[in-house]
Amino acid sequence: MKNKSSFLPQEGEAHPSRCPDNSAFKQQKLPAWKPQLTIATVLSSFFLTGSFCLSVGVSLILSANSIREIQIDYSDKCSDCSKLRENSSNWNKECHCSVNFTLKEDILGDVFMYYGLQNFYQNHRRYVISRSDAQLLGRNVNIQKSYCAPFTTYRNGTPMAPCGAIANSMFNDTIDLFYNLNSSVIQVPLLKTGNSWWTDKNLKFHNPKSHNLSSAFAGTARPPYWQKAVYLLDEEDERNNGYVNDDLIIWMRVSAFATFRNLYRRVRRIRQFADGLPAGNYTFHISYNFPVTKFKGRKQVILSTVVWSGGNNPFLGIAYVFSGTAATLTGFVITAIHLKLRKKKTHFRK
User: Fold this and answer.
1) Cα angle: 145, vertex 239, 127; to 5 degrees
2) Angle at 231 between CA 226 and CA 232, to 5 degrees
């Protein structure tokens, strides 16, 4: 074993230097711009920021207020169906209800139909992670190793497709809109595709590769609360069936709040509806499947337009107005303090 003194620098040996290199970067001698904060620059910054935020905020609020929107709550109007759905053993029994309403004025432009839910908490951690992204990509994976439990397999070992609590609780009411024109009833044409995000539709969701969907999902079963298998979601359009179904994709993007709305359909602008929805009497025909009574929830159908700033949400405009007001008031307070101190300096000089 070496002597402890052998590790110490001997006489005549150079001591290693711990000083940084004599460079402009390490010696912090790089050219830099140091702003000189004067009262003029500070006040102009606050007032310009306040003016900008106020103008943007007012524009956003006026834009949001120009949106035409109508909300129809059908939780109580379909009470018979709601009672039927309280018992899960009635999952295979159909129940329909109708809701009449009147548009006093035309809704011009693109009209979007949303479904809204209240008191439905999608932000619980175990709910949010209860999915298999690999399965939704069409891969052959062992869902027992995913976070889908307890919605992974049935007792006989048949895997669920798709698995997880999010997919199992998918909103499955069917809503059709009819226009009552004089003595005739015209069904409003609705678009059920093109409603989801492009990235979700083309990158995050894919069907398993096979010559047809029924064979691709062979050996799997629907989730417990579903009424039909995933490959029967849209038999009319193969590009909107299975995992790439728009309704499924939109539902799988969970909400952060207990009250939320999801895009359901868009009005197809043809014939009488080329300019939007004309004023008159309308009827929603609803196939009631989604129960909300047990968690004291509510269901709504929303018809709304959009503007350049998005949908009917004034929060961003209010936030800009609040920030602009705070910056402007701060500028006035600083101005008052500056004038007061300047008067004191003038008084002492005299």
Assistant:
1) 35
2) 65
Q: Residues 112, 305: contact at Cβ < 8 Å?
A: yes
C-beta of residue 250 within 8 angstroms of C-beta of residue 262: yes
The DSSP element (H or E) to which 158 belongs, if any, is none
24 bridge partner residues:
none
Helix (H, G, I), strand (E, B) or coil at 56: helix
CA torsion angle 188 229 123 292 (round to 10) = 60
**Cα–Cα dist 67/12, whole Å:** 85
Task: Indicate the residue type of 320.
Answer: Y
User: If phi over 0 gives left and psi between -120 and 50 gives alpha, with beta otherwise, what is residue 244?
Assistant: alpha
C-alpha 78, offset from chain centre: 27
Phi and psi based region of residue 109 (left: phi greater than 0; alpha: psi -120 to 50; beta: remaining) = left
CB 177 within 8 A of CB 101: no
Domain ranges of the chain: 68-305
- Tokens 């399965």 appear where? 135
Contact 220, 160 (CB under 8 A): yes
The Cα 131–Cα 334 span in angstroms is 54
Per-residue model confidence as pLDDT tens digits over 51-99: 999 999 999 999 988 899 999 999 888 888 888 888 777 777 889 999 9
**285: enclosing H helix or E strand:** strand 280-287
Task: Check: CB of residue 189 under 8 Å from CB of residue 173.
Answer: no
The answer to whether the beta carbons of residues 164 and 132 sit under 8 Å apart is: yes
Q: Give this prediction's pTM.
A: 0.81
